[in-house]
């Protein structure tokens, strides 16, 4: 706001968060049945953008079979005690960017 005498003008500041990109892509993982499989990728920056993991076309959430972690720019997925049914593509999506292994 700027005020001089009986006149005043006001403006607003609008901020947009820069888009995060995937700078370290997912890598294929080979594991034995019953072991854990760990997938990791790294973003260009910490972000509040929605990030999502997928097994095939199914969105994943943290539960007793899947652990999703975020540590700064590093995002990781741990599939607990994998089975043959888990042999599908794993994808990580943030904004318009996707990495698949």
Automatic annotation (TrEMBL):
It is found in: Cytoplasm. This is OBSCN protein. The gene is Obscn_1. It comes from Campylorhamphus procurvoides. InterPro entries: Ig-like_dom (IPR007110), Ig-like_dom_sf (IPR036179), Ig-like_fold (IPR013783), Ig_I-set (IPR013098), Obscurin/Obscurin-like_Reg (IPR052385). Keywords: Cytoplasm, Disulfide bond, Phosphoprotein. Pfam families: I-set (PF07679). GO terms for cellular component: cytoplasm. Residues 18-101 form the Ig-like domain.
């Amino acid at each position: 706001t700027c005020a001089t005498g009986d006149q005043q003008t006001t403006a607003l500041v609008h901020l947009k968060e820069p888009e995060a990109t995937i700078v370290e892509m997912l890598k294929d993982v080979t594991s034995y049945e019953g072991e854990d499989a760990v997938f990791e990728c790294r973003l260009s920056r910490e972000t509040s953008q929605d990030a999502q993991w997928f097994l095939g076309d199914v969105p994943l959430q943290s539960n007793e079979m899947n652990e999703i972690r975020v540590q700064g720019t590093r995002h990781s997925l741990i599939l607990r005690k994998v089975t043959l049914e888990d042999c599908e593509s794993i994808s990580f999506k943030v904004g318009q960017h996707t990495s698949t292994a």
